[in-house]
Amino acid sequence: MTYEDFPTDEQAVVTAGLPYANGDLHIGHLRSYVNADAFTRALRKLGQDAIYVSGSDMHGTPIAVNAAEEGVSPEEFALRHHEQYEETFPKFNVDFDQYGHTHDDTNTELTKEFVRAWEDNDHVYEKEINVAYDPEADQWLPDRYVEGTCPYCGEHARGDECDEGCQRHLEPGEIEDPVSALTGNPAEYRVRDHKFLRLSDVQEHLQGFINRLEGTSNAQNQPREWIEGELEDFCITRDMDWGIDYPGEGSEDLVLYVWVDAPIEYVSTTKQYSERTGDFDWESVWKDGDGEIVHVIGRDIIQHHTVYWPAMLEAADYAEPRAVCATGFVNIDGKGLSTSKNRAIWAEEYLDEGFHPDLLRYYMATASGFERDVNFSWDRFAERVNSELADVVGNFVYRALLFATRNFDGTPDAAVSDDVETEIAAAMDDYEDALNDYDLKSAGERAVALARYGNEYIQRNEPWKLDDEEAAPVIRDCVQLVKAVAVLLQPFIPEKADDIWAQIEEDGSVADATIGDCLQAPPAEFGEPDELFTKVEDERVEELDAKLQEKIEAASSDEGDDEDVTDESETELEPLADERVSFEDFQSLDLRVGEIETAEGIEGADDLARLEVDIGHETRQIVAGIKQLHDLDELPGKRVVIVANLEQAELFGVESNGMILAAGEDADLLTTHGDSEPGTKIK
């Protein structure tokens, strides 16, 4: 790869983390796929030769467990969901150049080739390990057939990952107090022979790789503690029937671990695309390193893509990725998305409400930067649609084109002004810079800012007060701005951008246009435009909020019936403390009103944020565990209550000088009813 700014002369492959073929898609899933799709389209806008590939992850224990519960084969179960994904993604204008699955022949054979290459390069060895066993069921318990306690953070963990605590990858035998997910009985550890990929062989390469890696800072920094420390080897086999058989002799009863064949699907789908079209050289990209490989993934699988995957590639003499962009999570109304509590917006549910897919695409790609969490709520969704897409983009396009057609039958015969040409050129440069910083949010916002500039330009020049000769150069500028907006917004709202393209009666598709076309003259003639966007009314938001709450309450009620628990509020409240403190002890706390000036996540820390808080006398740096629970972009300007005389501490290498007070597990920030000034003492 080149590591030069995009566009490069090399071919590029953009991938999205494989959806696990185990359930319906919701908007939390869609974030990664929409962002990767928009990034691929945006690279093409720069003139980059790029394709977008992914596939369904068909293997692993959750699929085997759920298939058994349904009484169907794992293959039948997984294929059903795979086919559902193939139907759902296009409904959101997610346009894969190739979408496969990990159980097809291409990935099966290529995965075995990888393993043979590791063996030929002497990177694989066999050793005895402890594997959980269920005596009652008389079977081994790989991955999510076993539950227990994470040895690193003490939280409840399932199988190969502490997904409720530190999110660390867990090897077989590491879970403490193992319990069989099949019978609910205690499991026992028994010795078993398994295959390992010797990561120490490639540790020096990984240390160089993480320093070269582009993308988001969380993907660059989180893996360092593993790569720079004592790197544990990677167990690549499992005791189960569902998966790709280990290709060596004497291992007929073992299959490859799902995290072996899953990332290899990126290579397989690229190969399938090359063979299908004949216009892409997959070996040049993946084997020779003459290409740009960009992975867009969820934050929970950073370790797999920045430690195990580059190790697998290097051990098989394949090329490393250029960039890994790890997205944050999607929260619903400020709380973590929960499928079990039905606190989720399902993909089909969104479409059933009659909303255009491009509205959600724009929200997901521009609501926050790649690595920050997105807090979805119907009122925020409506606000973004109304204030940015309808009031800015839609309003400008409609006003400009309507005036153009009614007064000039299309584009006036005039030259673009220097000011407008400079503004469009600046937008093009900013757009390119943002994409080279892997900053989709800024790229999308720059396109909307160009439409906002167009609205202000019309308002400032008031062409309706001018005669045709005076109005012609103004409207000529506006039509050029419309064309530029269509080109730059296409990666985010592809269908709506096509509508703009059609309204100015441009040839071909806006998908094929590059940013250079922003300054190319639009057609001389076109008809009257149609409105692009319909605003979301307040009554509609209230209706959608009510539906969401009904779902959550129904799920909580069902859960309560199943578990035979009493009122939820009674079970969630912590008991009052028996021990009392004196009034003097309470007075020793220096509680102050503070105003948050800045808020940003701490790299490598899933929950911690660094805040700058004005407390009147000075500005304090405070670390708070609110990263997952609040939209950090909305915190500046918020008044909070802090403990000002708490001893200083260091968290994740960042000094914290005070504590922000918050209520409950959702970190409901304590504030003041009135407008008390920063520094006001609380008595």
UniProtKB/TrEMBL annotation:
Binding-site residues for Zn(2+), renumbered to this chain: 150, 153, 162, 166
Compositionally biased spans, kind Acidic residues: 556-576
GO cellular component, one term: cytosol
GO molecular function term, any single one: ATP binding
Motif 'HIGH' region, residue numbers: 19-29
Catalyses which reaction(s): tRNA(Met) + L-methionine + ATP = L-methionyl-tRNA(Met) + AMP + diphosphate
E.C. number: 6.1.1.10
Residues the entry annotates as binding ATP: 339
Domain of life: Archaea
Annotated keywords: Aminoacyl-tRNA synthetase, ATP-binding, Cytoplasm, Ligase, Metal-binding, Nucleotide-binding, Protein biosynthesis, RNA-binding, tRNA-binding, Zinc
Pfam families: Anticodon_3 (PF19303), tRNA-synt_1g (PF09334), tRNA_bind (PF01588)
Protein localization: Cytoplasm
Binding partners and assembly: Homodimer.
Function: Is required not only for elongation of protein synthesis but also for the initiation of all mRNA translation through initiator tRNA(fMet) aminoacylation.
Protein name: Methionine--tRNA ligase
UniProt gene name: metS
